[in-house]
Structures are given as structure tokens and as C-alpha cells.
TrEMBL record:
Keyword set, alphabetical order: Transferase
GO terms for biological process, alphabetical: carbohydrate metabolic process; tricarboxylic acid cycle
A Pfam family: Citrate_synt
Protein name, entry field: citrate synthase (unknown stereospecificity)
Molecular function per GO: citrate synthase activity
Pathway this chain belongs to: Carbohydrate metabolism; tricarboxylic acid cycle; isocitrate from oxaloacetate: step 1/2
Family per similarity comment: Belongs to the citrate synthase family.
Enzyme class: transferase
Transferase recorded as keyword: yes
EC number in record: 2.3.3.16
SUPFAM superfamilies: Citrate synthase
Length: 258
């Protein structure tokens, strides 16, 4: 192998080809994409390698829109605003906030896709599949119930209605929507009260129905929530403020003596 090819092969990608005066994304010149595809379609093209149908793109976009923001009580949003008051620029504030989107805050969509697949592949009833999941992964079932939105997360019914319309139109087959419905019924039965699907469960249904692997559900959530993060960081820049922490200065934390 020559030194030239050794350098050229250091990174390998089928996403972009570029040389002076030419940029091709997934084999299409960038100038042919500019003004002809939407940003959600471009996201799909980048991560999937093809363009979605218009109906697929609409359902995909709905999931992205639904998760953009959840207010300053969300740790990621609060972090963005605090970062700005510490003198950071928008890019630093966004990076700080996105770094908080981990397994607990931001990972439920990915986990819900994994749970749907687990139930789908399990040889047994939904109840038995959930028992096996709980034994392996713990008692928290991602995508159902909400600590703030009770009795219903207002985003989930709208998203599931769009999934229903997509199934009727032949965009997807409803397989994972059906699984999610069965899980919801089983959880509610166990709790003795309704435990409805939340935003993470509904977007997980959409991403699973559209064929996105589970890890991308988290990545796509990060893209979606970045919109809210940017908006809050920018708003905080306009409002000003210096060194704002998680609580007003007059409040003190609880001290636990050793």
C-alpha cells in the first residue's frame, strides 16, 4: 500500500465525496439537494442513504417536531441557559446541554425501541416478555407514564393518531404501534390505573415503524432537542444575567453532616 492510499483510507465513508468545486452527498450533488429537499429529508438521507417518501418524511418530521423542548426544568435546557450566563457562546451552551442527554434524560426513546423489539421477538405473551425485560433491565419501562404530564402527555396521542393515518395509507404496517398498545394495556393492568404512552414511547413507535435502529432514536432525539436548546440559549443571551445556578441565590442546599 502506498503512502497516498494509506492516508486516503484513514477515513472511509459512503456519506460524502468532495473535491475542489464538487460536493456530493450520498451520490447526489449538493446543489441538486439545496432547495429541493427539506431538512428532515436531509437527515434521513444522511443517516439512511436514501430519501424518504413524502409520507414517510411527514411522519418522521412529526416525531422531530414533538420533542424539541420541555422547558427549563429539563436538565438539558437548564444547562444551556446556565452556560450562557457563565459567558459561554451558543455552540458551547448547546454542546454542554446535549452532553446531558444520557440514559436517564434522553435515552428513553432508544430504550423503548429496544423494548418493543424485545417484546416482538419474545417467545411468549406480552406479560411474560415484560417480566423478562424487567429481570434483565430493571423495573422502569421506558416510554410510558410521565412524572409531569398526568394523566396524559399531550404529545403522544397526536403522534399515535398520525401513526394510525400512516398505517391506513400503507406507509408502515403498524407492527410496533400494536406492540406499544399491548404494553400500555399490560402496564395499566398491573398498576390498576391508566399508564399512557409518553413522548418517548410515541416517537419510539414512529422510529421503529420507519425502520430506524434503536441507537438512532437517541441520536434523532438529540437533534430534535437541540432546537429547543438553541432557542433557550439564545433567549437567555437576550435576557442577560450572570452566573445563574440551578436555584436562586437565596435558596440553600440541604447539608447532611457526616
Amino acid at each position: 500500500m502506498s503512502e497516498t492510499s494509506d492516508v486516503a483510507d484513514w477515513w472511509r465513508t459512503s456519506i460524502i465525496e468532495m473535491e475542489p468545486g464538487r460536493i456530493e452527498i450520498r451520490g447526489t450533488p449538493i446543489q441538486e439537494l439545496i432547495g429541493t429537499v427539506t431538512f428532515p429529508q436531509m437527515i434521513w438521507l444522511m443517516v439512511r442513504g436514501d430519501l424518504p417518501s413524502e409520507a414517510q418524511a411527514r411522519l418522521f418530521e412529526a416525531a422531530l417536531v414533538a420533542a424539541v423542548d420541555h422547558g427549563p426544568q429539563a436538565p438539558s435546557i437548564a444547562t444551556a441557559r446556565m452556560a450562557v450566563t457563565c459567558g459561554l457562546g451558543l455552540n458551547n451552551a448547546m454542546a454542554s446541554a446535549v452532553n446531558l442527554l444520557g440514559d436517564v434524560h434522553g435515552g428513553a426513546g432508544e430504550q423503548a425501541v429496544e423494548m418493543f423489539a424485545h417484546v416482538d421477538e419474545y417467545y411468549g405473551t406480552v406479560a411474560e416478555a415484560l417480566d423478562a425485560w424487567i429481570e434483565q433491565r430493571g423495573k422502569i419501562l421506558p416510554g410510558f407514564g410521565h412524572r409531569f404530564h398526568t394523566p396524559v402527555d399531550p404529545r403522544a396521542p397526536r403522534l399515535m393518531a398520525l401513526v394510525g393515518e400512516a398505517v391506513e395509507a400503507g406507509v408502515c404496517d403498524g407492527r410496533y404501534a400494536g406492540i406499544a398498545g399491548q404494553i400500555e394495556a399490560e402496564i395499566s393492568k398491573r398498576k390498576g390505573r391508566p399508564i399512557p404512552m409518553n413522548i418517548d414511547g410515541a416517537t419510539a413507535v414512529i422510529y421503529a415503524e420507519l425502520g430506524f435502529p434503536a441507537p438512532l432514536a437517541r441520536g434523532l432525539f438529540c437533534l430534535s432537542r437541540s432546537v429547543g436548546i438553541l432557542a433557550h440559549a439564545w433567549e437567555q443571551q437576550q435576557q442577560g444575567g450572570r452566573n445563574k445556578g440551578p436555584t436562586p441565590p437565596k435558596y440553600r442546599w440541604t447539608f447532611d453532616p457526616a
